[in-house]
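Q: Please design a sequence for this.
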């Protein structure tokens, strides 16, 4: 993730964020050595960055091939109406759909871009009919199949 300079963050904060964005499980002793701080000030800075919302959490990065979900599909979704109530209803419904890995509201020719991971095209087709097409206010969809992930 690109981390821009911020007037509220000094060089140590920025370095902590850069390292943790790539290596979230790094021990604090190693992090502090790489940042150039002792352990306690480094821990204090980490806690502050968490409490101020710069760090939203830590997670495991799973291997899609080992989990049998190598097929990546992007779906453009256009809604029938885009009132605030319709957008809210769609947003809430897509939050409850575990099949949708990511959902972005788009300014452009369509309203939302969804990212899904599936076993194969057959399973995607089933999810398209059972999940995506039944989301509130969906008018049309257009599917784009990823051939290769170049950068995640």
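A: Design:
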């Amino acid at each position: 993730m690109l981390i821009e300079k911020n007037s509220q963050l000094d060089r140590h904060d920025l370095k902590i964020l850069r390292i943790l964005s790539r290596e979230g499980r790094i021990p604090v002793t190693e992090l502090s050595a790489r940042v150039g701080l002792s352990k306690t000030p480094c821990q204090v800075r980490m806690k502050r960055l968490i409490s101020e919302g710069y760090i939203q959490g830590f997670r495991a990065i799973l291997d899609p091939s080992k989990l049998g979900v190598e097929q990546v599909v992007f779906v453009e979704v256009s809604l029938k109406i885009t009132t605030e109530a319709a957008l809210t209803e769609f947003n809430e419904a897509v939050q409850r759909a575990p099949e949708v890995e990511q959902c972005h509201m788009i300014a452009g020719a369509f309203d939302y871009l969804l990212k899904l991971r599936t076993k194969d095209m057959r399973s995607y087709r089933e999810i398209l009919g059972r999940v995506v097409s039944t989301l509130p206010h969906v008018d049309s969809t257009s599917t784009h199949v990823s051939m290769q992930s170049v950068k995640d």
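Q: Thanks. Anything notable?
A: The two ends are 10 Å apart (CA to CA). The CA atoms of residues 23 and 57 lie 13 Å apart.
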